[in-house]
Amino acid sequence: MLLSDRTNAQWNEPPFVVRVTTDSSRPFTLRAREALLVKNPPPEHPLGFKVLFSLNDALKTGLNEPRVVPLPSTLSYVQDGDIVIVRPASGDLRVLYRKASLHNSLMVTPACNNLCVMCSQPPRKADDETFRLAWDSIPLMDIDTPGLIPLAIT
Questions:
Q1: What's the rounded Cα separation, in Å, for the pair 25 and 131?
Q2: Which pLDDT score, from 0 to 100, does residue 123 have?
């Protein structure tokens, strides 16, 4: 199962995370951080979603609001509650969290400099958005996710 692929939809915006939903009647207050997964053409385009993920050419691209992103067939397994990183400038998509999976993990930063002998991730000095995207994804995760412990930061 591939966790990342590229789409042909590209625009100028920083990377962001969205929770996938198939419910076009979601409250408007939630839609700004969600991607509506569309399998069949709706009678009208639902407004307020960060992006629309289109399967099987269910939607035509080129609309200004909301962004329409054709989902590659390699990511057709994406379903309600999954969390996807969208990198609009490159068209890259990455499934960060699968609600149905029993084994989810977040790589918080590639900039660790502890130099642990067992680590296969060498440290990098370049700044990237990995931590911010991981942090932004946590409130979008299902509260019943096994192994996820809610923390109160004061």
A1: 31
A2: 64
